[in-house]
Specification:
single chain, mainly alpha, Rna Polymerase Sigma Factor, Chain: A, Arc Repressor Mutant, subunit A, 2 domains, 7 helices, 70% helix, 0% strand
């Protein structure tokens, strides 16, 4: 991919990937940070990225992995504070949180990721399986559980068909 092609790719995909990662993480600023880091890594590999082979999926996967790594590091930091007997560092509350974002955050990470890839990114089950390294059956299980979890969190009955064919 040339520099001009990469610039076009970035302009077309950065906002979309940031929105997708935001849905997966529940933190817009974190999503912006990890997507920017993923694009920096993609820039270093731009000659190897082929537009036909899904550079957007590559960037989204790298951004998700970066977000998971940051979450683990922050969690270890909070646990270290608790073990030392001191209070954990205070985080700023998110006044703009909506019910759906809160419900998504309560889902296990894999369910949230699969649901975001399916409903926000509009990827088919097979593509989600390829991006996450899960089997198609496992993706369908995560989607089913995510729908049930969201319905319970939002006090809505679960549609037996799930709204879409999973």
């Amino acid at each position: 991919m040339t520099e001009e092609e990469f610039a076009t790719f970035y302009a077309q995909a950065a906002g979309r990937i940031t929105g997708q990662v935001y849905v997966m993480t529940g933190d817009f600023h974190e999503a912006q940070d990890v997507v920017q880091e993923a694009f920096v890594r993609a820039w270093d590999r731009r000659r190897a990225l082929d537009r036909g082979l899904g550079p957007e999926a590559w960037v989204r996967t790298v951004a998700w992995r970066l977000a998971v790594s940051r979450w683990r590091r922050a969690r270890r930091g909070r646990l270290a504070w608790l073990r030392s007997g001191g209070p954990p560092p205070a985080g700023a509350p998110d006044p703009g949180m909506v019910d759906v974002a809160a419900a998504l955050r309560r889902l296990p990470a894999r369910q949230r990721q699969c649901a975001a890839l399916y409903y926000v990114c509009d990827l088919p089950v097979e593509r989600i399986a390829a991006e996450t390294g899960l089997s198609a059956g496992t993706v369908k299980t995560h989607l089913s559980r995510a729908r049930a979890g969201l319905a319970a969190s939002l006090d809505h009955p679960v549609d037996a068909s799930g709204g879409r064919d999973a």
